[in-house]
Amino acid sequence: MPNKLKQYFQKARKEGWTIGQFNFSTLEILKGIIQAAEELQSPVILGTSEGESKFFGLEEAVAIVNVYKRKTKLPLFLNLDHGKSLDYIKKAADAGYDAIHIDGSSLPLRENIELTKKAIQICRKKDIFIEGEVGFIKGVSRMLNEAPKITEADLTLPDDALKLVKETGVDSLAVNIGTFHGIDASGQDTHINILRLKEIKEKLGDKVFLVLHGGSGTPKEDIIKAIKLGIVKININTDLRLAYSNALRKSLLEKPKETTPYKYMPEVIIAVQKVAKEKIKLFTQAKRIC
Ligand code: G3H
Ligand code: ZN
């Protein structure tokens, strides 16, 4: 049976849209994302980093996402985001994750390739979709007092990307094209290096699906250009975390005596849903895709 996520990426590539990966670490964030996907009848990738999945629980994440898969009948895929160690990747694979991002981008290329190959050996037996990464993406998914400086030297080299793809056979590849994790508190937007994306795409063609990390705080025009140039997955975390924490603070302040979570949480879920919905609309250009 062909891998279902791969089929959606093929469809996205053919039709010129992109699948959003939305990260979660609480049930309320997950609910907001699912509600947005339901509203727009869209496939989504649900991401948990190592930290997020340790907080939520790997098995708990799989179980609850399975409930939503059954209830919504939507193509939902659970991805381990920025998996760094083989030990943790094995745990996520055993728990039942649909996809795994093996991030060896902080290592020298040769070591990155060897680590990625080992991760693939673990995942292939279970038909898990694999994302690799070449070109370390700086920052953390939060409001940053000072955004990291991205220079030419940080960007993915097309030859390095090709080497890793050829030697490992990853299904998708995260590349550094100028974005970073998090949002600059001073309000400065992240810009995508369109030229480098073009060069990478020319070198790799359709050998691999291209992924953009650090999607929060990236202007719409840049996102649209990147989709046109072949980005078929965009990761969003900080924008959802901000929506969640700002709405939660507001809700508790407005209801200082309220102690019942189901009375102060609904607006928090709606705030996350709103952001996820805007992103899905932007990523899919309002096409009906399920
Ligand atoms: O892997 C997760 C993403 O790259 C999230 O980046 O927090 O800037 O949206 P972001
Ligand atoms: Zn990332």
How would you describe what is shown here?
The chain has 290 residues and is α/β, with parallel strands linked by helices. The chain has one domain (4-238, 271-284): TIM Barrel (Alpha-Beta Barrel). 50% of the residues lie in helices and 18% in strands. It is built from 12 helices and 10 strands. The strands form 2 sheets. Strands 1-2-3-4-5-7-9-10 form an 8-stranded parallel barrel, surrounded by 10 helices. The chain is globular. The structure holds glyceraldehyde-3-phosphate and zinc ion.
From the 3D structure, determine the CATH topology. Answer: TIM Barrel
Number of domains: 1
Largest sheet: 8 strands, parallel, barrel
What order do the SSEs take from the amino end to the carboxyl end, as H and E?
Answer: HEHEHHEHEHEEHEEHEHEHHH
Counting DSSP H or I runs of 4 or more residues, the number of helices is 12
User: What structural class results from the helix and strand content?
Assistant: alpha/beta
| Helix coverage percent | 40-55%
Q: Say how many strands there are.
A: 10
Please give the alpha-carbon distance between the first and last residues.
19 Å
In the sheet with the most strands, the strands line up as 1-2-3-4-5-7-9-10
Gross geometry: globular
CATH architecture: Alpha-Beta Barrel
Q: Spans of 5+ residues with little confidence (pLDDT < 50)?
A: none
* Oligomer class: single chain
- The overall pLDDT, averaged over residues, is 96
* CATH homology group: Aldolase class I
What amount of the residues lies in strands?
15-25%
Radius of gyration: 18 Å
CATH hierarchy class name? Alpha Beta
Query: Can you list the ligands bound to this structure?
Result: glyceraldehyde-3-phosphate, zinc ion
